Hints:
By secondary structure, this protein is of the alpha/beta class. The chain folds into two domains: 9-19 and 259-360, Alpha-Beta Complex (Aspartate Aminotransferase, domain 1); 38-254, Aspartate Aminotransferase, domain 2 (3-Layer(aba) Sandwich). The chain has helices at residues 22-33, 46-57, 74-85, 100-108, 127-133, 156-169, 226-237, 248-254, 259-280, 307-318, 343-360; strands at 9-10, 68-71, 91-96, 112-117, 138-144, 172-176, 202-207, 220-223, 295-299, 320-321, 323-324, 334-338. Helix 2 runs parallel beside helix 8, helix 3 crosses helix 4 and helix 3 (74-85) crosses helix 7 (226-237). Residues 14, 73-75, 99, 144, 148, 176, 178, 207, 209, 215, 220 line the site of pyridoxal-5'-phosphate. The site of pyridoxal-5'-phosphate has 13 residues, from helix 3.
Amino acid sequence: xxxxxxxxxxxxxxxxxxxxxxxxxxxxxxxxxxxxxxxxxxxxxxxxxxxxxxxxxxxxxxxxxxxxxxxxxxxxxxxxxxxxxxxxxxxxxxxxxxxxxxxxxxxxxxxxxxxxxxxxxxxxxxxxxxxxxxxxxxxxxxxxxxxxxxxxxxxxxxxxxxxxxxxxxxxxxxxxxxxxxxxxxxxxxxxxxxxxxxxxxxxxxxxxxxxxxxxxxxxxxxxxxxxxxxxxxxxxxxxxxxxxxxxxxxxxxxxxxxxxxxxxxxxxxxxxxxxxxxxxxxxxxxxxxxxxxxxxxxxxxxxxxxxxxxxxxxxxxxxxxxxxxxxxxxxxxxxxxxxxxxxxxxxxxxxxxxxxxxxxx
Length: 361
Ligand SMILES: Cc1ncc(COP(=O)(O)O)c(C=O)c1O
């Protein structure tokens, strides 16, 4: 995508618009000053693995700290997880439209991504389609709830149905829980670990990027059953070795923060309501209320434009940048808008889109 000029309002940014909380930054500096700059334990420091294990227990995910690996970002954690379970020719189910990196990673490993469209208009799993997509080659499903790009948060009943399907057809669940603390709807993030059959076949994959405003720190985790975690440890030991030593005490501090995290959450929750009201009331645009993360996925077919035309003209004529959904399989006629922007920018962007659409429709 061409970088927009400074007068463009960008609803494309997939990262919190907050600074990393100061205690986290201070902890990294203190670690550097203590000289913690040498090689260390490959899977991550014992205390950080313990802290992640304790954090996961808040979501009913009970995993021994020895079965936790700290990876350079959730993205790398996802890649390790796939390297550990996917063999060439294996099919991996994605709920479409899915975050594009999953497709790329599955293909990188010789696997075959199977995109199963989610239900409209609420973007929750379509279980009839899911059941039809399962074959003898299905090795895993990747789920992400709260979801990028849809903003959906799957219900406990839906997660249970996914676990049941995985148990019946014997495949892995790769649970990308990167947005698990960013939930604004009626139900919280639910882990497959909460249901019988889940713990033996689920990898809990997450990180600090979104919930703690730490995208540039490149810190993530994988946690799961011991046999598969041995393979994940080998992936890390044979590639990154470990994440930067002096980042680990800072990641540990992040997991202890409450006030800073809830302040960011309150701000996102306020913007979500404001932004959804504005976007959903634009002529020809319809969007379900997002339940989590900081994205709205809106259907623009009522404008008479497809998503690419909408995104191109919105940029050129309204000076607002959005992501066309057809960059992802199953995203035709949809645009993704991020509300990780100031309230002023959200308001101005909506105003520009409204003026533009009123002028052309
Ligand atoms: C669904 C999803 N998973 C994983 C990531 C990557 O997280 P990280 O920056 O920790 O690698 C992103 C980032 O956009 C994402 O949207």
